[in-house]
Amino acid sequence: MSSIFAFSVRALDCNIRVETACRDAYDMLVRYIFPPLPKSDSPLDPPQILVCVKKLQERFQISVDGAEVATACDVMDAVLASIKALDDVVIKRLSNLYAVHAGAVVLGGRALLIPGSSHAGKSSMVAELLRRGAIYLSDEYALIDEHGLVHPYPRPMLLRNGKPRQSPTLPEEFNACFAGGPVPIGWILNLEYEAGSVWSVQKVPQGEAVLILLKNTPHALAESPAMTTTFLQAVTKAGCYSGRRGDVIPAADQILKLVGAAI
After folding, report:
1. How many whole angstroms separate alpha carbon 54 and alpha carbon 25?
2. Which DSSP symbol is given to 223?
3. What share of residues in the chain are helix, strand, coil (percent, to 5)?
4. So where are the chain's domains?
5. What is d(CA 159, CA 111) in angstroms, rounded to the nearest whole number?
6. pLDDT computed for residue 118 by the predictor
7. I want to staple 32 with a disulfide (CB 3.0 to 4.6 A). Which of 48, 95, 168, 262 is the partner?
8. Strand, helix or coil at 60?
9. 98-260 in CATH: which number?
10. pTM (predicted TM-score)
11. End-to-end Cα, the chain, rounded Å
């Protein structure tokens, strides 16, 4: 009978249990599932989310609470699928925070948000800012509370690095760290990537910034009417900008110039 390797972690008010019979998968899941949070061998009572990674012949099956959500051809793909599956279920369970699809880092004690959908270049932009001294909040979700503060979403970055497949990457690989707690928003940059483009960004009213946040949230406004008020609170003291950027390195230069003028 195969041994079951398992750990528990509490993330964003959810008790999560992860189980697998594959030792290699277990080692990588421990490393990359909510990396900065403490893990326990014992179940947290009661587990609210159960993730199982099973190896079936030459493939892996990933299930959440007994329902299959993905299959994968190797351990790395199984870990990536598990991270993304947890993204979906944890974000849906949020009760005191609103999520916005955004890359988010801390500069000068304030959060810089780069809203955008998946595959919009958020992760590469976040990674470049970490190389230059930023603190990591998230490459996928900015979590905003009722006071307008941004909380860390403690998952690894998912970077392609010029390859077709994403790889989980920790901030420490850029000599950076996870943020330790919530911070106020300092800047919101709505940046559209255009290959070969030069930096062309203009300041926009805070009302437009609220619309940008609403456009990039996975929550339905009709089900969360207080969200607009929360986002209004969040942008009260933020510099809000919209425009286009080119490649990551010159864009990071411009971002740090903009932020540096305000610190």
Report:
1. 9
2. G
3. 30, 35, 35
4. 5-92, 98-260
5. 21
6. 65
7. 168
8. strand
9. 3.90.228.20
10. 0.94
11. 60
